[in-house]
Amino acid sequence: MSGTQRPGRPAGGRPAWLLAVPALVVVAALIVVPYINILVMSFRVPSTSKPYLPGFTVGNYAKALADPDFFYLELMADTLRLAACITLLCLLIAYPVAFHLARTTSRWKGVLYALVLSPLLVGVVIRSFGWIILLANNGLVNQTLKSWGVAPLALMYNEFGVVLALVHVFLPFMILPLMGAIQGIDPRLEEAARSLGAGRAKVFLRVIFPLSMPGVQSGCILVFILSCGAYVTPALLGAGRVHTMTTEVITLLDQFLWPFGAALALLLSAVGLAAVVLYARLSGRMMRGLA
Amino acid sequence: MTRLTLASLQKHYGAIAAVKGIDLDVAEGELVSLLGPSGCGKTTTLRCVAGFELPTGGLISFDSADVTMLPPERRDIGMVFQNYALFPHMDVRENLRFGLQMRKVPSAEVERRVDAVLAMVQLGGMGDRYPRQLSGGQQQRVALARALVIEPKLLLLDEPLANLDAKLRDEMRFFIRSLQKRVGITTLYVTHDQAEAMVMSDRIVVMFDGRIHQVGGARDIYDHPATRQVAGFIGVSNFLEGRLAGRDGALWRLETGFGTISCGAGFAPEAGGKATAMVRPEAVALAPAGAGEGFEGRIAERFFLGNLVDLRVAMADGTMLQVQQPANSGFEPGQSVRVSLPVERTWLVREDAA
Hints:
The structure holds 2 protein chains of 2 kinds. Chain A is about 70% helix and about 0% strand. Chain A is mainly α. In chain A, a hairpin with a 7-residue loop joins β1 and β2. Helix content of chain B is about 25%, strand content about 35%.
């Protein structure tokens, strides 16, 4: 084997793309095939006694989009509103943390980094139960309030609890891309701006924030998508009183309305994707000088 | 035009002293270089003047106003960074507008001044380019323009030419110097490049280890270095150690291993004590053996440098002198020579800053 190798070909002459085959197989088996299955399912005729009846229909989509009370469209709007709310809160909380982590020279940096990732160390169900212990009507927070003579607050079985718990778990997905982007900003740009007469607020608005837009963009897209698709946390902390598209889809599956559930799931994916594309377009305009 | 005054400026980082008490006056319109090896405190000094570092002692004044504790945005300075620090998300004009907008200059005047400064740095057609679309030299000029367009009290340059290739660096030295003279702005210039400091400065401040060793013009510093470190950092020096035997008027007699030499001094050394004199390689005069006066020596090595030959001359006691002669001077290795050290080029240096 001498002198016959070409770029893109590892030793042995087999092309390098073969290395991507395991990943392609996984993606195909676990994402593409199920999605096709869902797509086909969404055009089947629903039945309450078996998965579906023979034949195909667009009735599922018609029912979702043309419901006389706009039930499903409102549910969609609620889901997107909730996801947007979680995304914005994550951004506001994550930015200072990411900025500090990106710029600190403290020897505790590693520990801080681990703390950022800590919400991901606990499974979603356990974490939700943790929040229930804290937020329930007779939970830790309300018991403490009661002992201080303060009237108990409704902290869960409502959007507050769901948003709080989801913001908690999605924070790392915002902090990490933000941190990467901020680390890439030369601290001397801040100094240059200050030497030119910009105070700290102006430095942030005119220099730091615009330059961190790639991180803001990817963090927001990640958190938004994850929020749209979250199920366990809204189900447990909302306990049937907070409705999102995902809880509705699962309810439909429980009722054996698989084709209709599939149609709703695909609508959510499509609308979420459209929102992301729109957002990427808008934020991309702010990044024209970068890259 | 502004006068800059530093009075016993100090900067400590914990137990480490980066700047150990600096006194300096920069006159109106003057360009003063801070020259020294890395870690000598020159950049820290500049950053204290800019306001990015708060000094742990001493005073900084612009004219008579104490600015020691003012944040950078309120000092009215223009700064050029080694890596230029142009805003990558703004085109050239936006970069130049930034400082004027911070000063709330009316937009018609902003455009007028941006046009003027673009013409001044010869970047007239480049206003809509982004920094990454410019060459290093062009970015350098944008950085200069951005610092000058706000008409600051003081121009601060932190190794502005270090990232340019050698040819461009030579051009930019003259460009920056002529621009600075034309604008007439008081300028503090940090560099580790002695040639750059000598070409560009009205005065050079040579720093080592947080202290000023010498302040003076380029010729003064080259011919009459104050300390051994200055003589070693700027140009090449031969150091001759010996005992001070006494003085004849303004000159001192230094007893060295190969004989007694006469030298000048910029300070009052202690007669009878140990001392060091310096002499530049090109100042040493050589003659064939037997002819005239001087000390005995022998050519040990010869290196051809094109316009010069670089010789190593072994003196009677084994001292090696580096001597430069015109390339056609015809001294051969092994040849015996007579070495004379011109008294006006032989100079006593201190071991450390005064």
